[in-house]
Amino acid sequence: MFSFLLSEEKKMRRHAANWLEVAERVRKFRCDQLSEAQNQQLVAAAGDLQRKLTEKADASQLKLAIEKLEDVLRTVGGRFYPTSSLVENVEFFLVAAIVILGLRAYFVQPFKIPTNSMWPSYYGMTHEIFAPNEEPGLFAKTGRFLAFGATHYAAEAPADGEVLVPVISRDMRIIYSQKSGRTLGIFPTQQREYLFMVGGELTRITVPADFDFERVLAEKFGGSTGNLGEALQANLQNLGRQPESSMMTVAVGNRRQDQRVFWIPLGKTTRKGEKIVSFDILTGDLLFVDRFTYNFFPPKVGQGFVFKTGNIDELSREEGDKYFIKRLVGVPGDKLEIRVPPFVRDGGHTANDPAGQLFRNNAPITGTDAFAANAEKRGDYPGYASQGLLAVGRVAEVPAASYMALGDNSPRSKDSRYWGYVPNKDVVGKPLFIYYPLTKRWGVAR
Fold first, then answer.
1. Nearest to residue 427, comparing CAs of 336, 326, 337?
2. Is residue 166 reached through a cis peptide bond, with omega within 30 degrees of 0 on the bond before it?
3. Tell me: domain 3-76, CATH 1.10.3720, correct?
4. Which end of the chain is more exposed for a tag (fewer CB within 10 A), N or C?
């Protein structure tokens, strides 16, 4: 790196040593292919350069000896010398790939958090909605993409009129189709396609399958409470007539089915060309996972906890073999429960309910500040929801060679409460460092 600081003689001596390494490589790998005369030529030229190097000859003598050795190598080097730039580049990238795969397999692995089950400790994909005519310009979009991984999405009205969405009437659930797509036009991914109807014409918006687009709609059209279902129900009642209905083919994975839907007003009237909704999706946290430590030290309660889903029956059926991140709350033999005040019904599911208290072995759980923050509903931590294996009155005992893992965003996390325990063999490691996006969360993982 600092060769420019060396004298001419020292540079030539280093140059000579490199040529001797090349000569030795050729001699070892081609000794059975060289004739006796070629072998003697190579040994003699290399020996002459070595003697001059040992005797500390001046730069001009070393240069002559190097040129003599180079002439011999051009004759006897075969594929080892001269090496084309293409071969050198291929070798470089092969070595780099081997090093990277080795680091990934045994030491540090990059990991992207797709969902918000661990929010606010770690962020999955989040959004930022823009008011009409307030979308960032080209320069701002570029900056936001580089700093935050922000990608812009918008749905444009195809005609004048009221904006309608397709729902199943009984629970006001908005219908979407899931389909295959590509990220950056290259990498296979899953996407969700949502429909709007304006003036009898359809328009579509496609977002990543892991992104919670309903939260965008709830924030935009959910009224003061931010509850989209309640807002749609109120819009239906104000309609004063039976809503339009139609049959719609819904694709989820490889399955396609016909579904009757009802078109419910979103409470917005627009003109052709206006944006129904305009927003950015900000990438989830990208972090490095420490795969090394758990080979020598067992996981500790309270740590972030990355694992594979391939041997968790319910998860593998739904998700396949993926990497998940939760927080470790129980090791083999631990007894876990969520206790809620007796006047809270069904384990507590609303923002006004007192927080459920997570207990481990009959005492409030400790090991990280996130536990206390959830117990107190401090800041953005929503508190623990008593459901599934940890429903009101239930105690879950962690079996041997297994772990229990919960999301910090308990009301919106599908975790051990629903699909059970993490087998020891599927543990990957713990979060080490958030390296992107460039926000206040950048740095050592919590």
1. 326
2. no
3. no
4. N
